Amino acid sequence: MKLGAIFPITEIGTDPVVIRDYAQAIEDIGYDHLVVFDHVLGADPSKHELWGPYTHEFQFHEPFVLMGYLAAVTQKIELATGIVIAPQRQTALLAKQAAEVDVLSGGRLRLGIGIGWNQVEYQALGQDFSTRGRRVEEQIELLRQLWSNELVTFEGKWDTIIDAGINPLPVQQPLPIWMGGWADPMIRRIARIGDGWFAFFKPDDTGKHLIGKLRQYAEEADRDPADIGIEAWITVNNADIQAGWNQKPEDMLLRSADEWCEEIAAWQDLGATHLACWTMYGGLSSDQHIDVARRFKEAVDSM
């Protein structure tokens, strides 16, 4: 399995030196990839009904600008978006930004996309929240065309391009597209057209059921399930990655290395191809994020 770290985007702050030192430390420890989250706007939960984990109080760096910086201060670690909310963005601009990161990093981008949950963010960006699932499928088709062709003619429901293209094209042809989410339509979409799945759940009975669905749907789409990557995120503490602002104080306590390894082994049994170490929600400093990530890597290596 490939081993990554979740960039602690909500906790690392804004000092570019701290950000550089963290990324370089993760690479030096031996991690294969670094996962960066995305939100353009946060909303006030006292004014909006938010079922997702983040509010306006959580800090988010813009992922493509951040990864352009990370590309310059690292040498080999893969940079993955986990996930960019594609339907609230202009597709051609998304294609351009992703291609640029891939070029500047020498072919190190893995583009994770999803449809999101924050209707306030969609409204502010001038996009329709209710059509996001249907739109993302059209976007994936267009993204792949833009990344692979000098000129594109495309007439869809949401996007129209006539004899135009991005330049430069990405190093990878085409860029890998992974998706996140666990709703049945998303699992079917990943099985049909995705390169991989960010699995935001535990390797329990529910997780086994969802993985089984992915494999069933892939076979129904005449695809080999083994061709679809699966990345699991393992929290170093008792935190629930979906809880966010509803996290309980006791969930901040670190788990033991034995508990980490037990969960890692469960994901191995389910066929995960990638794992990522989640160190957020523990009130850690940047140095402590690095230290815990080092201990997590040592635990994995000892298995």
> Rough shape?
globular
The CATH level-2 architecture is identified as: Alpha-Beta Barrel
Q: Classify the beta-strand content into a percent band.
A: 15-25%
Strand order of the largest sheet: 1-2-3-5-8-9-10-11
What order do the SSEs take from the amino end to the carboxyl end, as H and E? EHEHEEHEHHEEEHEHEHEH
| Quaternary structure of the protein | single chain
Under CATH, the homologous superfamily reads Luciferase-like domain
CATH topology: TIM Barrel
Mean pLDDT across residues: 95
Which stretches are poorly predicted, pLDDT < 50 over at least 5 residues? none
Structural class: alpha/beta
Number of strands: 11
Could you tell me the radius of gyration in angstroms? 19 Å
